[in-house]
Protein 1
Amino acid sequence: MSQQLSEQEIIRRNKLDKLKALNINPYPAPLYPVTHYSADIKKLFSEETKEQFSNVCVAGRIMSLTDRGKVFFIKIQDSKGIIQLYVRKDDVCEGEDKTLFDEVIKHLIDLGDIIGVTGFVFITRTGEISIHAKSFTLLTKSLKPLPVVKRDEEGNVYDEVTDPEFRYRQRYADLIVNPEVKNTFLKRTQMINAMRAFLNERSAVEVDTPVLQPIPGGAAARPFVTHHNALDIPLYLRIANELYLKRLIVGGFDWVYEFSRDFRNEGMDRTHNPEFTILEWYTAYKDYFWMMETTEQLFEKIALTLHGTTEVKVGETTISFKTPFKRITIYDAIKEHTGFDVSEMDEAKLIDVCKQLNIEADETMGKGKLIDAIFSEKAEDKFIQPTFIIDYPVEMSPLTKKHRSKQGLVERFELMINGKELANAYSELNDPIDQRERFEEQSRLMERGDEEAMFIDEDFLRALEYGMPPTSGIGIGIDRLCMLMTNQSSIQDVLLFPQMRPERRTDEA
RNA sequence: GAUCUCGUAGCUCAGCUGGUAGAGCACAACACUUUUAAUGUUGGGGUCUUGGGUUCGAAUCCCAACGGGAUCACCA
């Protein structure tokens, strides 16, 4: 099988051969002693500090080449930004041999190649901080031409690469060519670091629990199944890690957390990828009121860390992460947005309400699912500013402790921001007998045809029987939080490598 | 999974109601040696996603497949 090469790719391979003929290794092995980054030079260089920049070594990818006869202006991009190199023939070729300049730099170097130079920093006639090169080294030859994006002084972009398919499939090229993309992912890491710091400051313990689970528990979702050959058993990629973290609370950890990569075998769209990240944590001797306070503090801290303010612009709206967040019960939320008081209704009445509100409903849906349907159809997207929706009906929360004073409800909240659920938390159910009954209720739902009802996890029940202290736990959708904090409208823009259909290879023999 | 929509050069796009492809950037050569998306001249590069159909003739119309996006459904 042979690769179908474009004209430009063939030219680059010919250049590769010419470089080798000149005894220049296009992929040299030795380390390259980089001393400075572009952005730091641009920030710190001045008349006063210029002594510190009299001998710098930088490396990066060529993003622009300007041939000016005996002088080349080359812009390279390193991990922090772009800087201009001033490459003069007689400076990089001191002796009689001018091959490096006349051949290599003039003809064999391309956009996209990775080079390094040493030299001193100065300011050009046009006022741009640049590096006057004393030596020039090719570090990597690029064989595939990058899309060429140009920017002018005002920041206008020409020929911007916007094709989502190209950007997601070839994220490496997207990152080279679209600097804001890289910035989004740096923000994502910053956000996760801030969350980790917040938890560690409070003595929470980060743990790892199984991704391959014999029983996929802790959430209502369809799992991916795989098979373990040696044990000859099915294993599931986790849909949540909740039940394992709770086992650790039983074991005596007071506060555990995990950034959990979860997998759900469901549809993909702007807010769903088959694998995604949830931060879950569980804290002993706490309840959901404490959890609300801690959660709003965390969110406020994230906003401050990333934006330096609690006011964050998302699309056209500004979201305020200033604590405290609003709280409203789910029944009040439904009443507020539909006029129906569903708090006392049974299944039949709920189905009737669904019909009146034009919501699809059928017999397989239990009371919990019906209420959830009404809420998510008619109320959910109305909550733009951070709001805790609290006190859910017991039927839709099989892992949650019954409410301390309200009959038929559980101590649970969901945090809604910009019309989307960002977090889900409870006072955890720790009564093993109650938990068994809830699982059994889930089994009945499964028999009625609910594909997402939970399995009974006997080992988890055994752990609860040893006794789990009163505990509050939460799950926070990291990808969606990241979308919010970086103002992205698609989950694919906060995942480095979003799931895509495989490309069809046309060059197979 | 359903519906709508898009698929032309390495990239961004043009190509009217069907008459067998065009621009800018990128690339190559030459000239010019004066930096700032943009020096000039010349040139090379496309089985117009794929496969069928209608037609004398299809990038253009129809059908299907493949891939992307949007909306909906399921869900976080």
Protein 2
Amino acid sequence: MFSPENRFRDYLKKKGLKFTPERRLILKKVFSLHGHFDADKIYDEMHKKNRKLSRATIYRTFPLLVESNLVKETLRCQKRANYEPVFGYSHHDHLICINCGRVIEFRNDLIEHLQEKVCKKYRFEPLEHRLGIKGYCQKCAGKRQRR
Amino acid sequence: MFSPENRFRDYLKKKGLKFTPERRLILKKVFSLHGHFDADKIYDEMHKKNRKLSRATIYRTFPLLVESNLVKETLRCQKRANYEPVFGYSHHDHLICINCGRVIEFRNDLIEHLQEKVCKKYRFEPLEHRLGIKGYCQKCAGKRQRR
DNA sequence: TTCTAATTGAGAATCAATCGCAATTAGTAG
DNA sequence: CTACTAATTGCGATTGATTCTCAATTAGAA
Ligand SMILES: [Mn+2]
Ligand SMILES: [Mn+2]
Ligand SMILES: [Zn+2]
Ligand SMILES: [Zn+2]
């Protein structure tokens, strides 16, 4: 009963929009990747499995996935917008290696709690937040040292 | 002795680059704004004071300012890259109102400290981080309530 | 089954950012 | 001070991501 597809259907219906084969394919792909993705990733994956579908449709579908709270945009590190699934995953923040691109996900409840306190202090009503720490992962830091 | 201009001069010299009038103007403008800015902001400000200078030069200067640790890129909220001064300002994070665009700066040392602990745990060597909380500022939250 | 508003793909358009190049210039060496 | 040269500039062209336009198609309500 509670699946990304059901939530997406409900959302679309509520908005008077249609659950098309293209939207279903994009949704399936997004949730089968279990990780960060961008428009081109989805485009390539689709075409690899020779299911052609246009970039325009992909770009038009992403905002719907975000609106229905199935995925969210992540911290933009290059120039392309990047997303990750939300449905079925719990909130976390990111450590991003600027050398190899590795992304480490972490969750720290105390940090989360302190953010709430900050918001209260400023009477700010938070909707979402993004915390990204850029630097060198263990492997890449080691390599740098040895140079 | 310690001024943005001196640091910039030193940086440029070390790299064998030149301290041109254009670079000086951009630097001055950046530090006279006391806040966030993007390429167009600088471009417009310059042309308002009818000091013409090309967009290319602005785009070419920003990375130098970042490299010399005078400014840093901030969390990208729209599609343009956005920056803020670092020299002369202490580190802080942001509350961003998605209704009126207001940006509230805050600093929470405990959050900062916890981030370091997270990095240690993953043996991650942090260089910088960005934390942005999006939501409604007091004013805008109030307006929403009353609707 | 019919009907219609929503959707699609293809390519054009947009927008920020980058690039190529000829003319100019900062700043070092003499 | 002058000469030299690599760095810089502005301009326009280009790129790359994203959005838009529009004619043809289709989901899904009636
Ligand atoms: Mn968090
Ligand atoms: Mn911080
Ligand atoms: Zn790494
Ligand atoms: Zn506001």
